[in-house]
Each structure stands twice: as structure tokens, then as C-alpha cells.
Design a protein that fits this description.
By secondary structure, this protein is an alpha/beta fold. Helices cover about 40% and strands about 15% of the residues. The strands form 3 sheets. Strands 8-9-10-11-13-12 form a 6-stranded mixed sheet, sandwiched between helices. Helix 4 runs parallel beside helix 5 (about 85-95) and helix 7 (about 140-145) packs across helix 13 (about 255-260). The longest helix is centred in the last third of the chain and has 22 residues, at about 270-290.
């Protein structure tokens, strides 16, 4: 069994939590391993679901005699969001600690159900990260992604196909999030073409044959169902005009590659470079959520097309990502403007160049060394 880095037990010591995460990130396994003595309710259990659907107050009757601070895990809470009223009552009256698990907050928000008024802290589980895997295989991760079943499988591509099919069926069709699933599926492929790029809704709408308003709603669906996320621009600058539009990334590089119909990746190609950037951004995002949830991740892009791929916090750290085997001075050009704007920022270049060094105030780190330093808290130190 692979030990996950995220320690949800520490969060539950402070109170109840919503645990969100895309399908197959390992939420149920994490909860079963962490809370062995807890009351565990799986709402995918047909009989239990039937009973609670017919009488939500049954949950209160089941749990009202439990001692204060008893941990109660409810897996797939979005199957019966009406239960949140009883959860609210049990937290308030009995001081129970709930772990409420689901793959999407959209069902709760869309239907206006009780989200506990701040009495449950939202937390997230992501795909595997490099530090969790012994003998981490970078090229395998770049092509097939880091979802646990996919990274560990002998035939990940078949699983990726099924993953997209299940997502479309259970998240999109059954919830009727859009009337035209075939158009939405086409949009997902076009969104993959825009992954890691500054979004232009009008161009994407033209390619999809729908309105820009519909495209924005489609992106909202991807974000709310945790299949993708927006990376905002860093706009607090003085000297230079910068982009105000976000970038979009799929939550896992393997899903992105599948939608791009990539069956292989070769170092030195544009495709490899896009996947390389995607994976590193994915890893930083998970790290920040697990260790520094108060710090925002963004990017910096000027009107003169100078860009820093990842900016941490208030421009405390700027990270450029290049898949080149050898880094030369020309690769560092974007840092000149960034350092002029933010002279106190720590500047890092992550690449496949195995010789770590410092050039013109920029730290050059081999990707594996960057990952190790990241998880040892040597990149973000506060």
C-alpha cells in the first residue's frame, strides 16, 4: 500500500471537514485507512441509501447517543445532500466530528443544500505526488498521469478511456449539467488544446460551435466537478501591463494526454514540454494545498509576452518550467523582467538539466531534485 502524504487526521482534530477530490484519487481508501475506529457510512450502499432517502432523521437517531468528538465518515455525501441538515444538528448539539466525502461540490451548491455554515472545513485529495511513490517514474507519470489506478496499472490507457466515459455518464448525463453531452465531450477535447494557455473564450466557442457564455459555463462545470482548475494571473504589478485572463489545466496530466489522443511522448518535442509543465504545476498545486493552503499559486504574463509559469504567494517565488536537457542563458530571458518587477523574489528554473547551479540569480534545478526539495519544504519555507 502507498502511504499518502495528506494527513487528514490532523484536520479532523480541529473539527468537521468536507473531503473533496476527483474520482479515483483514493478518497475512500484514505478514509478507511485513517479512521479505522470511526462510524463509517457508505452512501453507495444501496440498502443504507434507500433507508436514509426515505427518512433523513434516521441519521440523527443512529448517532445521537455517540460520545462527543466521535468521528463519523459519510462517503459520497452528494448522493443524499439532504442529510446535511441532520449533520448540522449533530455537530451543533452533540459535538460530533464529520468527514463528508465527495467528488464534487457542485451538487451541493447547485441545489442550495445546507453546506454547514462554515462548520466543516473544505479539504482536497489530489492524485499521487512524486514523493509518495518509491522509484518514481517521471516518463510514466508524464504520459499516463498520477491517478492511483492509472499510475499502477499495466494498461493505463484503457482505464483512462473508461474514466472519461464514467465522468460523462455519472457527472454530466445523470446530473443533467448540460443538454448536449456530445457537444460537451467535443468541448473537453478543445479545452485540452487550451490547457496551460491563457483562455480565449471567444476562440474556443467558435471551435465548439456554441456561444462564449456556454463555454464559460462548460469550464465552470469542469472546475466544480474537480476535473479541471483555473490558474489565475498575478496582477499586482507596477511597471508592466499583464494579462488578466486565467489559464486552465485538467487536474491530471494523464487525463489531459488522453483527451489530446497522445499514445507516446518523446523528449525534445512540444508535446513533451506541455506535459512536463502540466505535471510540475500539478505537483506544486497539491503541495500548496497540503502544506500551505493560505498561499495562492498564479502565473505572470506581460503584454510583451514575458511569462513566468508559476508565481507563489505575493510574488515571493517565480518558477519557470522547461523540458530542455541543457539550460542556456536564452532560457532565462523571462526572469529579467520578472526580477526587475519583483527584485526580492526567489527565481527557480525547473528542467531536465541534471547539473544544478545558480546563473544570474536564478536557481537551476533538475526536476527530481526540485520535487525532493519541494516536499522537504526547501522551496517554500514559510
Amino acid at each position: 500500500m502507498i502511504q499518502r502524504i495528506y494527513d487528514i487526521y490532523q484536520d479532523v482534530l480541529d473539527g468537521s471537514v468536507f473531503l473533496f477530490g476527483a474520482r479515483q484519487t483514493g478518497k475512500s481508501t484514505l478514509l478507511e485507512d485513517t479512521f479505522k475506529g470511526a462510524v463509517y457510512l457508505d452512501l453507495l450502499n444501496g440498502e443504507l441509501k434507500r433507508r436514509l432517502l426515505g427518512n433523513t432523521s434516521l441519521l440523527y437517531e443512529m448517532l445521537s447517543d455517540k460520545p462527543s468528538k466521535t468521528v463519523v465518515v459519510i462517503d459520497e455525501i452528494s448522493e443524499i445532500p439532504e442529510l446535511l441538515n441532520e449533520v448540522h444538528r449533530l455537530i451543533h448539539q452533540k459535538d460530533l466530528r464529520f468527514v463528508l466525502c465527495g467528488s464534487s461540490a457542485r451538487k451541493l451548491k447547485r441545489k442550495g443544500y445546507n453546506t454547514l455554515g462554515g462548520r466543516a472545513f473544505p479539504c482536497y485529495l489530489y492524485p499521487f505526488v512524486s514523493e509518495e511513490i518509491k522509484d518514481f517514474d517521471l516518463d510514466k507519470a508524464l504520459l499516463y498521469g498520477m491517478l492511483p489506478p492509472h499510475y499502477l496499472a499495466a494498461n493505463p490507457r484503457r482505464l483512462l478511456s473508461g474514466y472519461i466515459d464514467v465522468y460523462l455518464k455519472e457527472e454530466i448525463m445523470e446530473e443533467a449539467l448540460t443538454r448536449n453531452v456530445s457537444v460537451f465531450h467535443r468541448f473537453m477535447n478543445i479545452a485540452a488544446l487550451s490547457s496551460g494557455e491563457i483562455l480565449n473564450y471567444t476562440n474556443i466557442a467558435s471551435d465548439c460551435g456554441v456561444s462564449a457564455k456556454t463555454v464559460k459555463e462548460y469550464f465552470s462545470i469542469l472546475v466544480d466537478t474537480l476535473i479541471g482548475y483555473m490558474l489565475p494571473p498575478y496582477t499586482k504589478t507596477i511597471k508592466r501591463k499583464v494579462s488578466s485572463a486565467p489559464k486552465f489545466y485538467y487536474f491530471d496530466v494523464g487525463v489531459y494526454n488522453y483527451l489530446m489522443n497522445r499514445r507516446s511522448l518523446s523528449a525534445g518535442t512540444v508535446e513533451y514540454g506541455h506535459a512536463f509543465e502540466h505535471l510540475i504545476v500539478q505537483e506544486i498545486r497539491a503541495y500548496l494545498s497540503y502544506r500551505h493552503s493560505e498561499k495562492q499559486m498564479s502565473f505572470w504574463h506581460t503584454y510583451s509576452n514575458k511569462e513566468i509559469d508559476v508565481v507563489i504567494g505575493e510574488a515571493e517565488i517565480g518558477i519557470e518550467i522547461k523540458s530542455a536537457d541543457e539550460i542556456h542563458n536564452r532560457h532565462l530571458a523571462n526572469f529579467k523582467d520578472f526580477k526587475d518587477e519583483f527584485p526580492h523574489a526567489r527565481c527557480i528554473m525547473v528542467s531536465r538539466d541534471k547539473i544544478n547551479r545558480c546563473v544570474s540569480g536564478v536557481e537551476l534545478l533538475y526536476v527530481s531534485d526540485f520535487f525532493h526539495k519541494l516536499w522537504r519544504d526547501e522551496i517554500i519555507t514559510e
